[in-house]
Amino acid sequence: MVVGDLVYPKSITFSKRDGKFANREITITSRSKKNVKIKKVEDPSGKLKLTVKTPNGKAAVINTEVADTDADYKKPFRAALKIHTTSQKEPVLDIKFFIMDRAHRQKMRPNARFAPSKVQLSLTPPTTGSIEKPPGTKKEEVKK
Length: 144
What we know:
Layout: E1 6-7, E2 11-17, E3 20-21, E4 24-30, E5 38-42, E6 48-52, E7 60-66, E8 77-85, E9 92-100, H1 102-108
Parallel strand pairs: 2-9
Antiparallel strand pairs: 1-4, 2-3, 4-7, 5-8, 6-7, 8-9
């Protein structure tokens, strides 16, 4: 496996939370501790607003946000960004991105570990009434 000098995310996902898409930052650094500069950022799809921030140390940062927040993304939208850098080994980076509604994301992963629960669980025991035991739990009813 060949590992390049630049460190960056291979993909980013935008999904709705509380009716809005969250902004994402793409941070690009180098393993050799050299400064990384961004020449140009391209979004052929036109779905994202891209802002190159001033360099913070040796890292380059791009702020990304969904341009059309009112669009319907019931089907996931897939595209890629092209980022032109000053790196000689990796002059152009391709970063995939996905835009989707949160509801559709849950449909894609119905067995997700932390699926929303329809039942409210209480950590405190009931204060009134008695607890009934199911049949067969009393000593005289249990057969040995």
